[in-house]
From TrEMBL:
Domain of life of the organism encoding this protein: Bacteria
Stated name of the protein: ABC transporter ATP-binding protein
A GO term, aspect molecular function: ATP binding
SMART domains reported for this sequence: AAA
Cell membrane found in the keyword field: yes
GO cellular component assignments: plasma membrane
PROSITE patterns named in the record: ABC_TRANSPORTER_2
BP terms from Gene Ontology: D-alanine transmembrane transport; L-alanine transport; L-isoleucine import across plasma membrane; L-valine import across plasma membrane
Domain ABC transporter: start-end pairs: 2-240
């Protein structure tokens, strides 16, 4: 689905992403973890065309899109969310989803569109916001706004979905519900999903592979059960997380 080769992003003297290579297979559910400032969001910005990498190459479905803008990545079926949800506050929940659908339309023949993403009502069903359809986006809760942003991304009928801290600020119960939704997007809609999250224990229970970034470098890439035993990962990140969780 996606291949990053030695991807590097520099901001002046700071190397935010440092020669990261990674491959995503179609249908994988992959997590990205790492301390604050590790380069996770910058990696997403680079692999979605929001930022041009300083060096390295990016291939989506085998096509080299290095240096192209976000619309080219979207044409290849990539959709993403942002750390701070970007919804249209004055528009209704349904209109926000409909906005996403405007971008999807022409790319797909009707028979290629997953049944669950066929229209606004079905997408609201996937994210569980049917009852809020007529409410302005400003009137729903912050956790519902996160769901709505996922709905807007789904409306573009993606094949690859990048989720940036969609569980931030949610309660334990809401985080579990979010994790279940993410699983369903992969299991039932067949999407390839990459999920950045600081709720590490939840993330590790749900993803099948995890990449760990630290100071811009990829320091681990493997099964959650392997990564939690990796000495460099414990040193850089999990030690602090575990100490905060009371060991
Ligand atoms: N536009 C920018 N200009 C300059 N520096 C930036 C920019 N964006 C990010 N950085 C820096 O790049 C580094 C990586 O930031 P990034 O946001 O990618 O980390 P992160 O792993 O997503 O962190 P967090 O978990 O806190 O969201 C940080 O040192 C950050 O300050």
């Amino acid at each position: 689905m996606l291949e990053a080769r030695e991807l590097t992003v520099r901001f002046g003297g700071l190397t935010a992403v440092d020669a990261v290579s990674a491959t995503l297979e179609v249908g994988e559910l992959v997590g990205i973890i790492g301390p604050n400032g590790a380069g996770k969001t910058t990696f997403f910005n680079a692999v979605s065309g929001v930022l041009a990498p300083t060096s390295g190459r990016l291939l989506l479905e085998g096509e080299d899109l290095t240096g192209q803008g976000p619309h080219r990545f979207a044409q290849h079926g990539l959709a993403r969310t942002f750390q701070t949800p970007r919804v249209f506050a004055d528009m209704t929940v349904a209109s926000n989803v409909n906005f996403g659908l405007q971008f999807a339309g022409r790319r797909h023949r009707a028979q290629d569109v997953p049944w669950a993403l066929r229209d606004v009502a079905s997408i609201l069903g996937v994210i569980g916001l049917q009852k809020q359809a007529a409410m302005p986006a400003s009137a729903i809760t912050p956790s519902q706004q996160r769901l709505l942003e996922i709905g807007m991304a789904l409306a573009t009928r993606p094949r690859l979905l990048l989720l940036d801290e969609v569980a931030a600020g949610l309660t334990e119960g809401e985080i579990e519900a979010m994790a279940s939704l993410i699983r369903r997007l992969r299991d039932e809609l067949g999407l390839t999903v990459v999920w950045i999250e600081h709720a590490v224990r939840t993330l590790l229970r749900h993803v099948e592979r995890v990449l760990v970034l630290h100071q811009g470098r990829k320091i681990a890439d493997g099964l959650p059960s392997e990564v939690v035993r990796n000495a460099e990962v414990i040193e850089a990140y999990l030690g602090d997380e575990m100490a905060e969780a009371g060991g």
